[in-house]
Every structure is written in structure tokens, then in C-alpha cells.
Amino acid sequence: MKVAMLRSIQASLRRGAPSAAAASSSSPVLRRYYSSESTPERKVAVLGAAGGIGQPLALLMKLNPLVSKLSLYDIAGTPGVAADVGHINTRSEVSGYAGEDQLRQALEGCDLVIIPAGVPRKPGMTRDDLFNINAGIVQSLCTAIAKYCPHALVNMISNPVNSTVPIAAEVFKKARTYDEKRLFGVTTLDVVRAKTFYAGKANVPVAKVNVPVVGGHAGITILPLFSQVTPSANLADEDIKALTKRTQDGGTEVVEAKAGKGSATLSMAYAGALFADACLKGLNGVPDVVECSYVQSSITELPFFASKVRLGKNGVEEVLGLGPLSDFEKEGLEALKPELKSSIEKGIKFANQS
Ligand SMILES: NC(=O)C1=CN([C@@H]2O[C@H](COP(=O)(O)OP(=O)(O)OC[C@H]3O[C@@H](n4cnc5c(N)ncnc54)[C@H](O)[C@@H]3O)[C@@H](O)[C@H]2O)C=CC1
Ligand SMILES: O=C([O-])CC(=O)C(=O)O
């Protein structure tokens, strides 16, 4: 029995992570394994952990065997979330921190900080309508990150991502801690949606679908590259247009369905956990970890752009190019640039005048 378990753990390690079954076991063998030096200790913080995204994200990160310490921070409510999630018998130790006085403790020693803090949309609002409130929240949290865990990777979920990532970059530049390899706008939900919608239309198994989504994270700045989708099902141009539009409007679809009770939380928590896991695998030296993310970029004339990114021990190892685009995608790319440019400039201006 013990031999079988050790073999399963070794197989998981070769894949980069112990299996979920191994992770959730409380066997003495597993405890010895986790206390050995073979699995790096990784502290992960969720800022905004008592919120609609924060709570299910805390749960999913608690299930991730790559996490050894899970730090849950919010302005209020985190002791309860931490007590609840902390009873789950997986590897990480959970701590809850509430209020600015505890932000230092929440952040010190972090390898990865995930930020889903801030207000969500209501029907009729754009993501940019959240700027006035969320820009300040992101600015103050990033100021604390620069102080207490300047080397952590940062996964920015708070909207408008097209502006909050440039704000974070400016805050880190001012604090002289900026490393473009360590700052990520989380656009994974766009990829998750593109895969789901495509699989439904093309009638292919969703688990097999791969499709890059580039640009940014709002409306037409979200550009799925269905010309590069695998497996290819040769859909009609009209179908590709409709799938593109549905991916671009995916967030609004959820906002309207929730009718005033917020925006995507559960699918976002899933997407955030997926991206955080990829970042941790990269940090741990797992080869060939590639995900789409909104990062500092020179693949277009825009200083921030979402595309496929290879993740490694220092964060971004390589920003991958766009690859060949269809005429429809080329048009979409040109159409998104002015909006994305102005969202980036708005973020930079905010950070430098306040
Ligand atoms: N990147 C993406 O794909 C997505 C981004 N979002 C964005 O994520 C953000 C959060 O959404 P929800 O969780 O639904 O909102 P929510 O309102 O349910 O939760 C937000 C949490 O942030 C906390 N918070 C506010 N100020 C804070 C501060 N200074 N420090 C720490 N925590 C603070 C609140 O107390 C609350 O618990 C929104 O801006 C939303 O637009 C949502 C879905 C997808
Ligand atoms: O639409 C929103 O406001 C939340 C979001 O970013 C998404 O669901 O993609």
C-alpha cells in the first residue's frame, strides 16, 4: 500500500504536481513527503478573499498541492473564510487576515499574490466604469506588495484589467521593485469561455480544445484566435464571428444573468486557480508551461498585451508571438488597439498623478 502510494506521488512529481488523491490523503507517508525538501514551500495570498471570487478561489487554492501556505486577506470577513477552508485536509496551512493592519503579515514571504479585490459590474456598466473605485484599491494593495513581498508574482484579476495592470506596473516602478516578468493580468476566463463555446458549436470534446485569446480583457479588446483552434472543425465564417462575439461578451452575459448580483465568480475562480497553478508550476521549474496572459509586451506597438506566455522560474520566460491570423482576426486586432491603448494610458496617468 505504502509502495503504491509512493509510486503515485513520484509519478505526480514527474508531472509537476502530486495527484489530487495524494494531496487530499492524510497518510503519514504523504505527510513525510510534503515535509521533505522535494516539494518547494510556496506561500500564496488571495487579496479580496472574502468576496464572490475570493471565496471559491480560496477553496480551489486550498486544493492545490503546490501551495504550502495560503494567506487570505480582505478588509473584513476573512477569519471566517479561513476557519472554514482551513478545515480541509490538504497540504496548505491557512491564515486569515482582516484590515490594513494585517496586510503586512498576509504578504510577507509570498511567492504569488492573487488580486480579486474590488467592485464588480452591474447590468449596463462597462468594466471601465469600475475604474474610479478599483484603481485606488489596486494601487494601495500593490504599494503594500512592493513593500512586503517585492519578488512575488502578481496575478491581477480586479477590473478593468486593461488599466489595473498598468497601474500596478507604475506603482512598482515608483517603488523601484518593478519586474515585468512578475506581473500578469488574468485573462484565463476568456480562454476558458472560448474553449467551452467552441466545443459546443463544433461538437468536439471540450477537454481537447485549445485556442489562444489575445489583446486585452474588455469587449472588443478580447480577441480569440479561432483560426488557430485545435482540433479544427472548419466552421463557417458566420459561426466564427458569432463565437468571437460571444467570447467578447461572455462577462456581460453573466452580469445580465445575475441581474444586479455581480459578475462571474465561480468560473472566474476556476480560471484564476488554473492560472495560479500554471504560475506555481513555472516557479517550480516544470517545463513548457504556456498560458495566455496580459503582460508587458513588445509583440505589438502596445506596451501591454495578452498573448501566449511561457512561464518559468522567474515568471514570464517568453512572450510568444501571435502566429498567423485570418483576415477577420487582423481586422479585430487593428480595431482593438485604440481602446486598449487608451485604457493603458488611463491607468498610467492615474498612477502618476495620485
Ligand atoms: N479578470 C477577470 O476575468 C475577471 C475579473 N473580475 C473582477 O474581479 C473583481 C472582484 O469581483 P467579485 O469577487 O465578484 O467582487 P466582490 O464584491 O464579491 O468581492 C470583492 C472583494 O474585494 C474586497 N475588497 C475591497 N477593497 C479591498 C481592499 N482594499 N483590500 C482587500 N480587499 C478588498 C471586498 O471586501 C470584497 O470581499 C471585480 O473587479 C470584477 O470586475 C470578475 C470576473 C472576471
Ligand atoms: O464582465 C465582468 O465584469 C467580469 C469579467 O471581467 C468577466 O466575467 O470576464
Which blocks of ≥5 consecutive residues have pLDDT under 50? 1-36
Q: Which ligands accompany this protein?
A: 1,4-dihydronicotinamide adenine dinucleotide, oxaloacetate ion
N/C terminus separation: 61 Å
For the secondary structure, the number of strands is 11
> Largest beta sheet, briefly?
6 strands, parallel
Helix content: 40-55%
Q: What is the overall number of helices? A: 13
Question: What is the fold-level CATH name, i.e. the topology of the largest domain?
Answer: Rossmann fold
User: Taking Cα atoms only, what radius of gyration do you get, to the nearest Å?
Assistant: 20 Å
- Corresponding CATH architecture of the largest domain: 3-Layer(aba) Sandwich
Strand content: 15-25%
On the 0 to 100 scale, the average pLDDT is: 92
> In sequence order, what are the helices and strands, one letter per element?
HHHEHEHEHEHEHEHEEHHHEEEH
SSE class: alpha/beta
